[in-house]
Design goal:
The protein has about 70 residues and is α+β, with helices and mostly antiparallel strands. It has a domain of about 50 residues. The protein has one helix and two strands.
C-alpha cells in the first residue's frame, strides 16, 4: 500500500502537521493548528510573523481575520 502524501503543512516552511515543533491550539494536536491565515496553516509564531511580514510587503493582507480551520468541517 502506498503512503498518502501529507496535505497539511505549514505554508511558510513546509513542516508537516503532527511533527515535533508544530504548535497546536492549547498544546493539543486534537485541537488543530494554533496559527493560520486565509491561505493555510502555520506551524509556529516565527512562521506566523514571517507570513505576516511577507504579506504586508506584497500588499496582500486580508481585511478581516481568517475563519478558524477548526470550524471548516462543522
Amino acid at each position: 500500500m502506498l503512503a498518502r502524501p501529507e496535505t497539511r503543512r505549514c505554508i511558510e516552511c513546509g513542516l508537516p502537521y503532527n511533527m515535533p515543533g508544530f504548535s497546536y491550539y492549547h498544546g493539543d494536536v486534537e485541537n488543530g493548528a494554533a496559527y493560520w491565515s486565509d491561505r493555510g496553516i502555520l506551524c509556529s509564531p516565527a512562521c506566523s510573523l514571517t507570513h505576516f511580514k511577507r504579506r504586508e510587503a506584497e500588499g496582500t493582507l486580508p481585511s478581516a481575520p481568517a475563519a478558524s480551520p477548526l470550524e471548516f468541517g462543522r
